[in-house]
Amino acid sequence: MHLLLRDRRSRELGFTLIELLIVVSLIVVLATISLATYHNSVQRGREAVLKEDLYRMRDAIDQHFADKGKYPTTLEDLVSAGYLRAVPVDPITQSATTWQTIQAEPDPTNPTTEPGVYNVKSGAEGEALDGSKFSEW
Fold this sequence. Notes:
Layout: H1 2-13, H2 17-68, H3 75-80, E1 100-103, E2 117-121
C-alpha cells in the first residue's frame, strides 16, 4: 500500500516529457520573435542616426555657403571652419571616410572658383527597412 502511494506522488510531482517539450518549444518561439524584433529596432536606430547625420552635414554645408559665398572643398573643411565638431561616422558602414560627396556645378560667372561640396550621401550599400537604398538618401 505504501509503495502504491509513493509511486503516485512521484508521478504527480514530476513533468512528463511532452510537457517539457511544449515549454521548451514555447521558449524557443518567443526567443526567436524577440531576437527578430531586437534586430529590426537596432536597424531602425542606425537608419535614424544616418538621416540625422545627413541632415546636420547638409545644414552645415548650407551655412558655410551662406557665410562664405562658396561651398567647402571637403567635409573636413566644415570641421576646420567650425561648422561641425567632427565628420560623423556613418552608422551603417561604421566609418567616417565612406561619405560620398557631390560637387557643385561650376559657377559660370566666376570660373576660377572651385565648385566645392554641394551635397553628401551615405557610401553604404544595401537597402533600408523601407526598401530604399542608403546611397539615395
